[in-house]
């Protein structure tokens, strides 16, 4: 029985193919070239606005995933990520987000925002204490 169970388990296991990294690295530039051609349709001033090229980027991502899978490689993998990072540097290096400089609101607004919850808390405590002393009415 044990032998048959082991035979069943080994027969059910998937045969794993080794990742052909050189094939994958050979095919990925075609995805990059296709993405580059599609990005030529987008004004370079709009390259930081994802809504302008989301379809092209989705096609690029699917292409890299397909080529990695065709080479029996999982996706994403370090080599594919390195390639994708290179594409990002080529097209999106100027898309750094500006840091938001936070400022306190004016004093009048700040005082109001602090006093309202404090006042409401005091009022609720007073109401609870008053109601608990007058339990004969409730």
Automatic annotation (TrEMBL):
GO terms for molecular function: coreceptor activity. Its main location: membrane. GO terms for biological process: calcium ion transport; cellular response to hormone stimulus; G protein-coupled receptor signaling pathway; intracellular protein transport; protein localization to plasma membrane; receptor internalization; regulation of G protein-coupled receptor signaling pathway. One of its GO terms (cellular component) is plasma membrane. It comes from the Eukaryota. The chain crosses the membrane at residues 109-131. Keywords: Cell membrane, Disulfide bond, Glycoprotein, Membrane, Receptor, Signal, Transmembrane, Transmembrane helix, Transport. It is a single-pass type I membrane protein. It is found in: Cell membrane. The keyword Lyase does not apply. Pfam families: RAMP. Belongs to the RAMP family. This is Receptor activity-modifying protein 3. It comes from Jacana jacana (Wattled jacana).
